[in-house]
């Protein structure tokens, strides 16, 4: 009597194929969630809306560094959707309300930064926010609220630091496009920031109903 054919290889193949499809679906879901994360938060604000509580900070920093306050608002909008993102740290290592790389904030002369291509060095917060260290190494961090420290997680310090950076890279001389490109060297980024800045210059709406913690 001939032996019956074994079905195990076929069943195993079906199970493996099903598992492959399941893992693939999970992967695609994760990728889509990552890509749509900022879009989800972006829907919190229409393109002309700006949180009312932030406008005085933008204007004060803009006056101090002779840049457009609408430009500061636009950078903040594009970077963290006015700080409404779940996390204020990017996968690349940028931190805070306006997404500074640590070495840019403290200064590229800081020990170890010269070995970091993108500047995402792990620097203790007590050192990162120390104005004497920032001044020593030529960083862009600014004490915007006058408490003696420059903290990228403090909204005033972050906005003033961004104003400082943009001004030093051309915005104070009318070279906004150049300054924005230095902030994030991607053409799409420059276009998006300029689009928001132009929108705010034409017409903006100050909104009161957006509540979030600006001081982590």
TrEMBL record:
Q: Name one GO biological process term.
A: peptidoglycan catabolic process
Domain of life the protein comes from: Bacteria
Q: Where is the signal peptide?
A: none
InterPro entries from the entry?
Answer: Lysozyme-like_dom_sf (IPR023346), MltB-like (IPR043426), SLT_2 (IPR031304)
UniProt-listed Gene3D superfamilies: 1.10.530.10
Which GO MF terms does the UniProt record name?
peptidoglycan lytic transglycosylase activity
Organism of provenance:
Alteribacillus bidgolensis
Transglycosylase SLT domain: residues covered = 136-174
Indicate what this protein is called per its UniProt record. Answer: Transglycosylase SLT domain-containing protein
Q: Where are the transmembrane segments?
A: none
A Pfam family this chain is assigned to: SLT_2
């Amino acid at each position: 009597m001939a032996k019956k054919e074994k079905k195990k290889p076929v069943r195993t193949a079906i199970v493996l194929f099903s598992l492959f499809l399941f893992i693939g679906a999970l992967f695609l879901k994760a990728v889509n969630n990552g890509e749509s994360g900022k879009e989800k938060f972006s829907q919190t604000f229409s393109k002309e809306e700006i949180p009312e509580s932030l406008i005085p900070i933008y204007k004060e920093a803009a006056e101090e560094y002779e840049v457009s306050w609408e430009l500061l608002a636009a950078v903040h909008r594009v970077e963290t959707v006015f700080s409404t993102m779940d996390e204020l740290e990017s996968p690349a290592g940028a931190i805070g309300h306006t997404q500074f790389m640590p070495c840019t904030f403290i200064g590229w002369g800081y020990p170890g930064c010269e070995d970091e291509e993108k500047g995402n060095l792990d620097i203790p917060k007590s050192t990162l926010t120390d104005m004497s260290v920032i001044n020593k190494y030529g960083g862009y961090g600014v004490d915007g609220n006058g408490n003696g420290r420059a903290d990228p997680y403090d909204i005033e310090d972050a906005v003033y630091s961004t104003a400082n950076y943009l001004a030093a890279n051309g915005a104070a001389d009318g070279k906004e496009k150049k300054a924005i490109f230095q902030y994030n060297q991607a053409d799409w980024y420059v276009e998006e920031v300029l689009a928001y800045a132009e929108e705010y210059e034409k017409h903006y709406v100050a909104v009161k109903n957006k509540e979030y913690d600006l001081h982590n």
